[in-house]
From TrEMBL:
It comes from the Bacteria. Residues 7-122 form the NAD(P)-binding domain. Pfam families: NAD_binding_10. This is Epimerase. It comes from Desulfobulbus oralis. SUPFAM superfamilies: NAD(P)-binding Rossmann-fold domains. The lineage of its organism: Bacteria, Pseudomonadati, Thermodesulfobacteriota, Desulfobulbia, Desulfobulbales. PANTHER family: OXIDOREDUCTASE HTATIP2.
Length: 217
């Protein structure tokens, strides 16, 4: 399998790359982003791209399985319009280019609560992306909607507080389905999803992601 990864320098992408490198089924990895991953390996080929200029890189997006781990925050992006350009448009452009070039499997990191008709911006954006990528007609599409992720090196105070609150609620039996998930576990689930040979579209809830971990290589 030749893997294509966009968002490899984010928390999920950084957790995914070592798994792809170690996987016997993966013969080559092409990473696309605004900077190269810190990791190096003979399997890994990095491409520095401008997300806003897909015509400059679309022909290089050639492989079998696509992993979309791309995402930013409103604070980092600076505006909703700028966040849309990364989380939605760049991700869709990448998925479209890969499908045009023959990719047959796509694994998308979306978000719990994604809904194109949500009154709230973030879940609406993620839901719109799910619908747009589904329309591309990938033979095998896996949409993963993780709960709040535990990222050891997170510098987001709000995220750390939310994780502590959820852990407390989980301890008394509340919101168990939304208990936080280590980003390393999400990465394992993404690889398991890509290796699933069954055709069709599958949307994985937080519990579905945990079930994928049982199939993780």
């Amino acid at each position: 399998m030749k893997a294509l990864v966009i968002g490899a320098t984010g928390a999920t992408g950084q957790a995914l790359l070592p798994l792809l490198i170690a996987a016997p089924a993966v013969e080559r990895i092409d990473s696309f982003g605004r900077r190269a991953p810190d990791l190096t390996d003979a399997k890994l080929h990095s491409h520095i791209i401008d997300f806003h200029q897909p015509q400059q890189w679309a022909d290089k997006v050639q492989g079998d399985a696509v992993f979309i781990c791309l995402g930013t925050t409103l604070k980092v992006a600076g505006s909703k319009a700028a966040q849309w350009q990364i989380d939605y448009q760049a991700a869709l452009d990448f998925a479209r280019a890969a499908r045009h070039n023959g990719a047959s499997t796509l694994v998308l990191v979306s978000a719990a609560g994604a809904n194109a008709r949500s009154p709230f911006f973030y879940p609406r954006m993620k839901g719109a992306l799910e619908e747009a990528i589904t329309a591309l007609g990938y033979p095998r599409l896996r949409i993963c909607r993780p709960p709040l992720l535990i990222r050891p090196d997170s510098d987001r105070p709000g995220e750390k507080i939310s994780v502590r609150i959820l852990h407390g609620l989980n301890a008394i039996g509340l919101l168990r389905s939304q208990r936080p998930l280590p980003v390393t576990d999400l990465a394992r689930a993404l690889l398991a999803a890509a290796l699933d040979p069954q055709n069709g579209v599958k949307t994985c809830s937080p519990e579905g992601i945990r079930q994928l971990l049982q199939k993780s290589p």
